[in-house]
Structures are given as C-alpha cells and as structure tokens.
Amino acid sequence: MQAYSVIGKSVPRNDGLDKVTGKTVYSADVHLPGMVHGKILRSPYAHARILRIDTSKAQALDGVRAVVTSQDVPIQGGQKRPSNTRHVVFAQGKALYFGQPVAAVAATTPEVAEAAIALIQVEYEALPVVSDVLDAIKPDAALLHPDLHTEGLAGRDPAPSNIALRVEFNRGDTSAGFEDADVVIEKTFRTQTIHQGYLEPRAAVAEVGSDGRMTVWGSTQGSFIARQLLSEILELPLGKIRVVPMEVGGGFGGKNSLVAAPICAVLAQKARCPVKLVLSRAEDLTSGRPAPGAVVNLKLGATREGHLTAVSGSVMYNSGAFPQLLGADGIITGLGHYRIPNLRFDGYSVVTNRPPVGAFRAPGAPQTTFAMESAMDMLAEALSLDPIELRLRNIVKEGDPMPTDLPFPRLGFMETLKATANHPRYQSKRQGKNVGRGVACGFWMGGVGSSAAHVNLNADGSVALVVGSVDLTGTRTTLAQIAAEALGIPYESVSVVIADTDTAPYSDITAGSRTTHQMGAAVYRACQDAKAQLVQRASARLRADPSEIEMVDGKLRVKSAPEKQVTLAELARASITSSEGAITGRGAIGVPSRIPTFSVHVVDLEVDPETGKTRVLDYLVAQDAGLAVNPDLVQGQMQGAVAQGIGWALSEEYFYDNGIVRNTTLLDYRQPTSLDVPFVSTLIVEVPSPTSVYGIKGIAEAPLVPAMAAIANAINDAVGVRLTVLPMTPESVFRALQAKNSSKA
Questions:
Q1: Cα 137 to chain center, whole Å?
Q2: In this structure, is residue 167 part of a structural domain?
C-alpha cells in the first residue's frame, strides 16, 4: 500500500469531545420561541377499520393548538396518498398495525397534549390479523390491501394478494446440479423482526415561516431524501421546504425512513407555530421501522470434494404493513459470495399486520446469509472439511458472475479468508468443556448514490468542507482526512460542515456503506478543483508555467527552483481581494458502480447444557476495507456490528399477541450489554478497489452479515444441535438439547 500522510492514520474524531461532554445538539434539544409539543394517538389494534373519529373534546381543551387526522393530510386528485408515502402520516380508513398513528395533537405542554389525546374518541371495527408471512400467503388469508397485486418479472398478477413483490434468479439446471451432488443439505430457517437498537428515539421540530416555507429539524440519515418525502406529503415545492439535519443518535439504516417529522410538519401547518415531537422509547420500539423477519427455504448440493453443484430455495421477507422493495439484494448478498453453477432462488416481499420495516445494516443480507452459512457449515461437517477450506474451494473471484450474472470486480474475499485462517485465534485450540467454534462469511454489494462537496479556502490557509451527507459513523473525520491528504495540509486545518438543504450541495442518503468512499470521491474532486485554481494563481505570482508548479506541505513552489514558492495562506489572503475572487473547489460524483466488501467471523462460545445459556467467549472479525482511512473508526464499526449480531443471534425479538407488541421497553426487549459481548478482535485486510479514490471501500455493512450464522455454527460445534430459528435463546437451546437426548434414548 502507498504511504500517505493523513489517511490511514487513527486521528481523533473531530466531533468526539462534544459528544462525550454532552455538548452535541440532537433533535430533541432544539427549542424555538413559542414552541408547542406534539403527541400521537395510536391504534390499539393491529388491523381494524376506522369507523369514526371525534376530536371535538380534544380541540376544546385549554392549551390545545391543533388536532390533526388523515383529513388534514393533503390529497391529490381526490385520491389518498400513494402507499409509499401515506403510511408515514396517519392511518387512512383502517389501521394496519398496532401503534399506527391515527391522530395527533399539538399543545402548550406535553401533559396537555397527552390529556387531549385521551379525549379523542375513535370507533373501530376489528378485522382479522395476519402477522406471520406463512399465514399471509395462504389463499384464505385476510388481505391488508385489496388493491395490492404481486409484481414480478412476469408482470402483475391479476388477483390481489399479500405478496407485494416477487424476484427470481435462475442459472443453469438445478435438477442436474442436484443429481451431480454427493451431499445434499435441505433446511428451513427463520429470522425474527428486530429493532436497530439506536439510543436516540425519533424526534423532530417543525416551523412554518411567514412566507409559508417549512423548516424541519430532524434526526434523519438523508436530509435531501427527507425533503423530497415531505414535499410529496405536504404538497409543497422543494424550494418551500428546508431540512436541517441534526446529530443522529444512532440509525443503522432505521432512520432512512421518516416517522416523526411528517406528523410534526402537519401539526406545525395547522397550529401556525413551531412544534416539537419526541417519541417515547415504547413508541419507537412499537412503531419504528424495524428490520424484517424472514423465512428461508434452502437446498444445497455439493460434490464429495466440497464443490457446490446447485442451490435452490426461496426467501420470504415480512415487510410489515406496506410494500417494501425486499428480496433482490438479500439473495445477491446471501448467496452471491460463492460460485454456484446451477441456481434457482425466489424472493418475496409479504405484507402483514406489523409496522412497516426499514433497513438495518446490509438490509436483507443477514437473513439469507444465516441460512446459507449454516448450510455451508453443515456441508463442511458432512464432508469432514475445515470450514474455511470448504469456503476457499467455492468463493467467487474477479470476473465470476453474481446471481444477476453481472461480473464481480476486483475482490478481497480470498485474502480475507486466508488472513483469518492464519490468524492465531483461528489456529488456537478450543479451551473448556462444551466450547465450540463457529465460522461464517458474509458480504455486501455496497451502496450507491449521488454526492457533491464544496471546499472553501479560508484566508489563513485552512479549509471549510461543506457537505450534505449526515454523519452516522465518524464520516466528518474521514472526509476531513481525505481533504487534508488531497490538499497536502494538516488534518487540523480542515473543518467539516454538514449543512442544511438550502446550503449544502446535493447528497443522497447516508446508507449502504457509501459515504466515505463516494462522498470522499466528491471531496477529492473538490480538492482537485481548488488545487487547480491555486496552481493558476501561484504560476502567475511566481512567473512560471502551471505545469511547473507543485504543492508540497502547504506551499506551492516551482519544481525546478524550489526556493521560488508561496504559501497556501498567502494565496488565500490574496484571493479575497483579487479579481478572480475567493477560491472554492467543487466536486461531484454520480451514481457509481458498486464496490463489494467481505467479512469473515470466528467465534468461540460456551453452552451450559443444564440451562441452554450461551456465553460468547471470544470473537474475531476480519474485514476487507480496501484502505482503512481511519483504522480506529474501522475497528469500531466492526466491533459494533458484532455486538448487534450477538443480540440478533441470541436474545432480541418482538413478542406479538394477535399483532400487538408486548415487549415495549428495553427491560423486555433484550439487547446485549457489556456483560454479553466479549472483547472483539479485529483483522483489517486492505485490498484496494481500482474504481475508488485511494482504493477505499465501504465497511459498515458487511461485518454484521455473518454474525448470526457464526454463532449458530459455534453452538452446533459445542453441543451438537443445529438451531435454524432466531433468536437462539437459552430456552431454544435447552429444548434442542432435550430433543437430541430423547432421540438417543
């Protein structure tokens, strides 16, 4: 790897001190003069027709400024809002999930707003509840949307259905492939709906100016996408909406979707004063945008030498109450990291009476990977092969086709697997009784989007970098490092401004592990633009051809006569009064090609056969990062992903009773704590991408993907039971052990 002066170094986060000292301002901290408070009335039913809403008593309560329902949301051409936007405001005609907003109130205090909510009278007609995907696809299942028809490659099915989308991947002849197999593994796997686990509940503040312009301060992963959605909901031009992205207290994909902001904005329009809406923890757990559960049917065939011959099956994602574009990415990432000559796999997005789902770190991939990597472990066991050796015999390489038949670019998968196999932790012996070791691999295709950046040169030679991408993971720091490297200035000389939609150049959402390498490319181009301007001005000042000017250590000098030089600060000061004006660099990048990234997990754990309790003892996660711009931040992403994976694997789940969520606190929704997560060792592998600036790849998504399968494989190695349903709680492990012992008796 090329040596760099700033990137590749673990410099401190430039926002770290404010966060640990409590100075950082989040959405709930915003306070405006004359501001009132919003509260939401939610459906107590998972599926019910709304017959009548009476808000008269609430409106009459002293201190109430506005009461809003679906009637206050603009309609277009006499039709209600389309399904992709209507669910973010209020139930339209019927409630489709427990906790769906039915009405909202703005009042002078939160207490008055709560009292007003209690005065709203709603008459419901309960309807049959469909909460499970397998129930939802039955011919006699109650339909959530009578006008919903399955969309697929074959077109639109004529009959209405709870299946919103079907995708199909076909390659070769799976029947012949299974005939050629010496070993066939066939299982059904289930994963649960889970919350992303962010610390900050959703919040927003909205205000309508005297000119009718709406300003929204909110916790969002994409301010421009939020502006677009608000424009559709409120029927306002984009120029009439300003979104101010506040600090995000965790998102992990869940805050791609707006939950609080649209209702807050509708309240502000009617109340004609600023409104703050902060969800409680119970509201966030109940009606946020959780990651979808899934049912995966998988059949896998291989030769006795361990080469895959065929894979077939399906995945059904529980998309909640409204259609979601699920299926394709989950299949590509769940199966695509292996060479499969014969493939037939279908993906379905199924609507149910649960909250609409959202993204969670590599959306769709962990579910299918849990199935595929568990089956690969079963195959390794059947063939008496080392788990990593089996994978090395089947991994994709550059030029191999994805399930879409598009070729893979340059990969670091083999290097990551080999580095894991040679790591001391993998080479070590297991220690203790009922201790098992699990291995699993995963990958993420990489997110894509459009990005732009401005680099403003200050009069003292420092730089202000202006971007519109929200910082979720420390990207202020990594983008500052890229700018400092490109300009040849100290990291401390770069400040980063995450500006609002009126100020920043356009940027797509912060998601898919795309920000550092894609916004980084825009930043790099903006720096090159600024450098070109600096070179032109230095060449005039030093009376040299521009081709003779080089920029070194904050100075521009003549290559053949280095003593002839001018500092960056001198040029910056001069630019303010020059005829050309101040120096501002601009850079943009369109939607680029995807850059796949790979992760390998090795976990050691202990199972107590008397109780079924699983204790994770040791964890190693390896990741191909392309180039680690800031190794400490990369390691933090890897370790955080493992912590979330442990929760997904062992403890986290929603408990539904006829569609009603019963565990709405963090006492009952069991996230892992520091007592559940061991020290996570990290192994950063750097195989640069040939298509990105400095070879950078995204790193935040892939390290979550294999975690659940690795833990399942370790449990099987420890006590010889194969669990196929998440979470693998002590009770489920205990029952599996009891069943195993009974079969031996």
A1: 27
A2: no
- Residue 737: how many other CB atoms lie within 10 Å: 19
DSSP track, 409-422: -S--HHHHHHHHHT
Q: Kindly indicate the confidence band of residue 1, based on its pLDDT and cuts at 50, 70 and 90.
A: low
Same domain, 385 and 271: no
Same domain, 79 and 114: yes
Q: Please give the tally of structural domains in the chain.
A: 3
CATH number at residue 407: 3.30.365.10
What DSSP line would sit under 502-552, residue for residue?
A: TTSPP---S-TT-IIIIIHHHHHHHHHHHHHHHHHHHHHHHT--GGGEEEE
Q: Are 535 and 551 contacting, i.e. CB atoms less than 8 angstroms apart?
A: yes
* CA 736 remoteness from chain centre: 33
Residues 206 and 313 occupy one common structural domain: no
The 10s digit of each residue's pLDDT in 34-92 is: 999 999 999 999 999 999 999 999 999 999 999 999 999 875 434 443 444 556 799 98
Residues 650, 704 within the same domain = yes
Give 627's pLDDT tier (boundaries 50, 70, 90): very high
Both 223 and 105 in one domain: the answer is yes
pLDDT, tens digit, for every residue of 234-286? 999 999 999 999 999 999 999 999 999 999 999 999 999 999 999 999 999 99
69 lies in which domain range?
A: 27-127+196-287
Domain termination residue (choose one: 287, 317, 340) = 287
Specify the pLDDT at position 86. 52
The secondary structure of 619-630 as a DSSP string is: EEEEEE-SS-SS
The answer to whether residues 275 and 418 belong to one domain is no
What's the pLDDT score for residue 434?
97
What's the burial of 245, exposed, middle or buried (CB within 10 Å: 0-12/13-18/19+)?
buried
HEC secondary structure over 436-492: EEEEEEEEECCCCCCEEEEEEECCCCCEEEEECCCCCCCHHHHHHHHHHHHHCCCHH
